[in-house]
Specification:
Blueprint: E1 2-7, H1 11-26, E2 30-32, E3 40-45, H2 50-65, E4 74-79, H3 80-85, H4 88-92, E5 98-100, H5 108-118, E6 122-124, E7 148-152, E8 154-155, H6 166-170, E9 174-175, H7 178-190, E10 195-199, E11 207-208, E12 211-212, H8 213-220, E13 228-232, H9 241-249, E14 256-258, H10 266-272, H11 278-291, E15 296-303, H12 310-323, E16 327-332, H13 350-375, E17 379-387, E18 393-398, E19 403-407, H14 414-417, E20 421-429, E21 434-438
Helix pairs in contact: 9-11, 12-13
């Protein structure tokens, strides 16, 4: 049978879709990249913001229409929105056959079989708190070229950020044993993976029987063949001294971090339930910079949270200036049903939210341009991931997370360059990437 998976939302969901694809392939399914011809259509939904939720539900509606012409289709609504809505999804989109929360992907093949045989609707939501070891690790395989892979180290979230639905749809935090993580990374590295990204909602809160996140990074630093380690997403409240110092002495730990701050106003942070102040965040940034001066720090920011004044917003702009973020994912606040912040009015008008978002973009775009300009002439260590945008080009990522395109070096081909580390000098800035040229003679490692 053929299955099609449409993914919405964060990297966690992207990775979950990889796991779903892996589970289905092992059960004889073929994964297709278009819905046409597939018997099983899977929506891996997100509900973290209202817009994401609307997108997932309308995709389910769109795919559901296909049932009018084909009665052998099975529609699976999976992921965070499925977890949140449960059986209500059937009322919203009657064409859906199976509603599946993120802790139930292991049962997907048997559940599909059941709904197809019984021609009935079924939902499975709830958390596997009793079986915290059930992480369904992937067969060693890369994202695209076998050079980099995601590895889950914890799941769920035990924070209570007042705007956030994640703890309700992903459950409390559960850690994967450190030995399992190390074993998976060793096996990935033996199969040619050179870069891993550790995943978790508050990944740096990791603590398995006394082994901290910094301890885990130190163990991974010794895995033979592994060149690079990244992680996402850390919480500023768990940026311990050991973790910050790891950036200074662990060779594999890349000099980039995505550290969501959400607001530059301590008053807002308190109201958001973030458990740190803007001053604390500034200190973390400063310490990260003294541990690793060339580190690039990016962040998430919510504008127009309930009660946010112009002054609060200006403090956010001030923080962006001072922290010199290399990138900001910015979002207009949207109320999520069931979250603590729904007790407050969503009182910043939509027009004002848009204005603040635009003002934030003006500031961050300038800073990003300045930071990128500083990279021209620098030599970056690029891990080749595939063909570049133009013919005869390669693309890859530098350790600092920047995407770099450069011509295939003399004497090399796409095939021989894939998965290699190559020194590339940055020669030009493009809108979303850097253009470079390999240092000759090429030293491909
Ligand atoms: N409204 C807007 N943005 C939100 N985020 C989480 N919940 C909301 C919400 N209710 C943002 C945060 C988080 C990112 C994944 O999504 O910035 O870091
Ligand atoms: Fe949501 Fe806060 Fe948990 Fe992040 S740390 S997933 S924002 S509750």
């Amino acid at each position: 049978m053929k299955a099609y998976i449409k993914t919405f939302g964060c990297q966690m969901n992207v990775h979950d879709s990889e796991r779903i694809a892996d589970i289905l392939s092992r059960h004889g399914y073929e994964i297709t990249d278009a819905p046409r011809g597939a018997e099983v259509l899977i929506i891996n939904s997100c509900t973290v913001r209202e817009k994401a939720w609307h997108k997932a539900i309308s995709e389910a509606g769109r795919l559901g229409v296909r049932k009018r012409d084909r009665d052998d289709l099975t529609i699976v609504f999976a992921g965070c929105a499925a977890q949140q809505e449960g059986d209500k999804v059937f009322k919203l989109i009657p064409a859906v056959d199976l509603v599946l929360g993120p802790d139930h992907y292991g049962q997907l093949p048997s559940l599909i079989e059941r709904v197809r045989e019984c021609k009935s609707q079924l939902s499975r939501v709830g958390f596997d708190e009793g079986r915290p070891g059930d992480f369904l690790s992937l067969e060693p395989q890369g994202k695209r070229t076998g050079t980099s892979a995601f590895v889950t180290v914890m799941k769920g979230c035990s924070e209570r950020c007042t705007y956030c639905i994640v703890p309700f749809v992903r459950g409390p935090m559960r850690f994967r044993p450190d030995d399992d993580v190390v074993r998976e990374v060793e096996s990935l590295a033996q199969n040619g993976v050179r870069e891993v990204t550790l995943l978790g909602q508050t990944v740096n809160a990791y603590n398995y029987e006394g082994a901290s996140f910094a301890d885990l990074l130190a163990r991974l630093d010794r895995v033979p063949g592994l060149e690079r380690v990244r992680f996402t997403s850390p919480h500023p409240g768990y940026m311990t001294k050991e973790l910050i110092e790891s950036f200074g002495h662990l060779e594999t730990l890349c000099e980039s971090i995505h550290l969501p701050v959400q607001s530059g106003s301590s008053r807002m942070l308190r109201r958001m339930g973030r458990r740190y102040t803007a001053e604390h965040f500034r200190e973390v940034v400063e310490k990260l910079r003294s541990s690793r001066p060339d580190i690039l720090i990016s962040t998430d920011i919510i504008v127009g949270f309930s009660g946010e004044t112009q002054e609060d917003f200006e403090q956010t702009l001030g923080l962006i200036e001072d922290a010199r973020f290399s990138g900001v994912f910015s979002f207009k606040y949207s109320q999520r049903p069931g979250t603590p912040a729904t007790k407050w009015r969503d009182d910043v008008p939509e027009e004002e939210k848009k204005r603040r978002l635009a003002a934030l973009h003006t500031v961050i775009d300038r800073i990003v341009d300045e930071l990128r300009a500083e990279l021209v002439g620098k030599v970056l260590d690029v891990l080749v991931e595939g063909p570049g945008r133009n013919p005869g080009q390669l693309t890859g990522r530098a350790r600092n997370g920047q995407i770099v395109n450069f011509p295939v070096p003399p004497g090399m081909t796409l095939g021989s360059a894939l998965g290699k580390l190559i020194d590339v000098e940055v020669v030009q800035l493009l809108p979303h990437s850097l253009e470079g040229s390999a240092i000759l003679p090429v030293r491909a490692r």
